[in-house]
Amino acid sequence: MPRPPPRGRGAGAPGRGRRRRAARPRRCSGGRWPPARRRRRGAAPRTGRWDGAGPRSSRQRSRGRGPGGAPLRGARGAGRTGPGCADAGVGEDWGGVDLRIFTEPHLGATYEDQLRHARLTEECGFGAWFRSDHFLSRDGAPGPTDAWVTLGALARETSRVRLGTLVTSVTFRHAGLTAVQVAQVDQMSGGRVELGLGAGWMEAEHTAHGVPFPEVGTRFDLLEDNLQVVTGMWATPPGELFDHHGPTVTVSRSPGLPKPAQHPRPPIILGGKGARRTPALAARFADEFNLPFMAMDEGHAQFGRVDQACHAAGRDPGTVLRSAALTAAVGRDEAEVARRVGATRQELGQLRGHGLVGTPDEVVEQIGRWHERTGVERIYLQMLDLADLDHVELVAAAVLPQLG
Prior knowledge:
Layout: E1 98-103, H1 111-123, E2 128-131, H2 147-157, E3 162-165, E4 168-169, H3 175-189, E5 193-198, H4 203-207, H5 216-235, E6 242-245, E7 250-254, E8 268-271, H6 277-285, E9 288-292, H7 296-313, E10 321-330, H8 334-344, H9 348-354, E11 355-358, H10 360-374, E12 378-383, H11 389-398
Parallel strand pairs: 1-2, 1-12, 2-3, 3-5, 4-5, 5-8, 8-9, 9-10, 10-11, 10-12
Antiparallel strand pairs: 6-7
């Protein structure tokens, strides 16, 4: 996605015979912050999926299913549907706002750090754990980790939480191989993967690894080709072949295999600040549109552009789920809030413009303002310190209950 604030950003059920997992030393401790229940807001959530066949005005809903088709029970978001996925965790309670956890492992996290964080995210009842897809560490060791290698491993070490990228840059992987890798991880997870795709923006991480970094127009051509190839390969019926001839990618006689576990495919997430090509691509391909660290008014305007692009494409804008990525710094008191703001390496005033900062009650009020101003239905909480597990637990105990 487009350039983030200074700190950076970026999109299964165990089988028989698997080794026994190691004991998990940490559990989510709910109830440490007595939440005050909030009145349900009146806005209805947007759900459903547009398959490109023509305009849609109705919302589709189906019961949430987990690996093997079994109903998901006992988790927030169970039995609800997002765009084209079994249990995307779209909130149907307070204002329809769903919270997800979003991390930046390239800033200083090992695989073990990510595993611990993802497991806690699942145990605390969040619907999804996402990570960025970057290859350049700012502070040296331990260095970056590959997003899809990591998500493949987490797919086998978790059972309910959804997994994805915000976002995978199309400059890093060939389009056909992205289709193969994401489909395989979706199978490994039992159908819990979501794919965020973007044109890339950090030139330094490309030159540091010998990866070409074309000019922005070519990168958007590459993004469009990737979207056509990935969705086209997944949609190719068994026994048929897929071909694509675009300005940056040519695919000839691809069998379009393997297929993802989700039908018709994993959700596609697009986002960014671009005023022309970004909304147009979202109208054609996206199940979800994400605002990357924008101010409220800026986000409101960008969602309006996506709506206009949908109308121009003959698509119901209500079939594009609205989401935002916001840096989180939640604390029980001013001192704890200040400590978590410091971990972001941003000034408090700057962070308030594109983040959620304060006590749990203050953050709930901020989420309410975001929902009322922009219609946002999902928020990705960017948590930059993966060692701060208490941050996840506090939000789960004191913010989630107030959202429904």
